[in-house]
């Protein structure tokens, strides 16, 4: 049997690639599993990224990820565009399996990110980055003086909607029920905001627009009547699904599905296993914070390996 590697990284977004750059530069020769369908992470599906430092004029998401990938490769990271289907993290030597092969390592960094829940409507994918967004902090700036709709009824939907009133000429919060799930303080804040209108008992039937979002067709969940709402931006804030299923029973996972770490480190409940990025973070969820914690995970790994000798 071959010797276990120093580190395996599972995931290829800003977290995984940054961890790979740091680990490779520390001569740990990381093996990175990128995933087969969404290699490169969430930014592969977006257009312009304007808030990643170092790019004065912004950068296209896929270009940023291609450069991070190339930078990791330049320092000797080994990249495998395949899905990890099973892990065994119990022992000192950890096992990671794809559909066709088994790999071992003394440490593992979990960086599989988190998926945004989708509405499941026909034009949703096509218009992503063309009016449809899952992140107000990332994209709010593109909708100055425009009408914007936010879908959702929880705290994060209200937070997104309230934040977007800084840019939008009008923001509609679309909720399918009468009562909002959000906390009292958030509801009060929303209701006091003159630019924010809460539209209750509605679901989106259709997203309108050929090349960019031009509006939505709303269906009243009580009367079934439909009407058109003209908006240029549609922010979907109906929740997140951390990709942690693979790690259940192996590391501690919180009630929302995020991997728990011993902040401020990236150590999970299992020795030698570290986790970072959107798989852990339900608060910031930014490329730069993902990259930052990816770097931290590699540094934690390096320190842990040093204790093993
Ligand atoms: P991800 O980027 O989600 O990467 C994880 C990757 O790991 C997956 O994509 C997959 O390839 C891989 N993976 C998952 N499971 C497995 C497995 N079993 N085996 C192997 N590989 C696996 N943030 C900003 O700061 N600025 C922006 O402008 C911005 N715009 C955004 C636009 C969109 C449309 C979206 C969806 C997000 C945007 N974000 C933006 C948020 C940012 O993309 C995320 O915070 C960041 O990508 C999280 O990085 P991550 O590496 O933790 O996870």
TrEMBL record:
Tell me the keywords, alphabetical order.
Answer: Disulfide bond, FAD, Flavoprotein, NADP, Oxidoreductase, Redox-active center
Q: Name one GO molecular function term.
A: thioredoxin-disulfide reductase (NADPH) activity
Q: How is the cofactor bound?
A: Binds 1 FAD per subunit.
EC number from the UniProt entry: 1.8.1.9
Tell me the superkingdom of the source: Bacteria
Which cofactor is recorded for it?
Answer: FAD
Outline the subunit composition: Homodimer.
Family listed:
Belongs to the class-II pyridine nucleotide-disulfide oxidoreductase family.
Give the protein's recorded name.
Answer: Thioredoxin reductase
UniProt source species: Promicromonospora aerolata
């Amino acid at each position: 049997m071959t010797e276990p590697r120093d580190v395996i990284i599972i995931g290829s977004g800003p977290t995984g690639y940054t961890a790979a750059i740091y680990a490779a530069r520390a001569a740990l020769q990381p093996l990175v599993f990128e995933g087969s369908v969404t290699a490169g992470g969430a930014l592969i599906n977006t257009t312009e990224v304007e808030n990643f430092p170092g790019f004065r004029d912004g950068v296209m998401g896929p270009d940023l990820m291609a450069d991070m990938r190339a930078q990791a490769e330049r320092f000797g990271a080994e990249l495998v565009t395949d899905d990890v289907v099973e892990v065994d993290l119990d022992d000192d030597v950890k096992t990671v399996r794809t559909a066709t092969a088994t790999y071992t390592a003394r440490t593992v960094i979990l960086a599989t990110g988190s998926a945004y829940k989708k509405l499941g409507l026909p034009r949703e994918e096509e218009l992503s980055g063309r009016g449809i967004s899952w992140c107000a902090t990332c994209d709010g700036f593109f909708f100055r003086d425009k009408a914007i709709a936010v879908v959702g009824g929880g705290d994060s939907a209200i937070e997104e909607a309230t934040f977007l009133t800084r840019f939008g000429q009008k923001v509609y919060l679309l909720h399918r029920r009468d009562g909002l799930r959000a906390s009292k303080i958030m509801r009060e804040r929303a209701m006091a905001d003159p630019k924010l209108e809460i539209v209750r008992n509605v679901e989106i039937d259709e997203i309108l627009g050929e090349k960019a979002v031009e509006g939505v067709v709303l269906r009243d969940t009580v009367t079934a009547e439909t009407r058109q709402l003209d908006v240029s931006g549609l922010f979907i804030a109906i929740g997140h699904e951390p990709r942690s299923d693979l790690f259940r029973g192996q590391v501690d996972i919180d009630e929302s599905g995020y991997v728990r770490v011993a902040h401020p480190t990236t150590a999970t409940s299992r020795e030698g296993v570290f986790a970072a990025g959107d798989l852990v973070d339900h608060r910031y969820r930014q490329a730069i914070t993902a990259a930052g914690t990816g770097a931290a995970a590699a540094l934690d790994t390096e320190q842990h390996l040093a204790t093993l000798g």
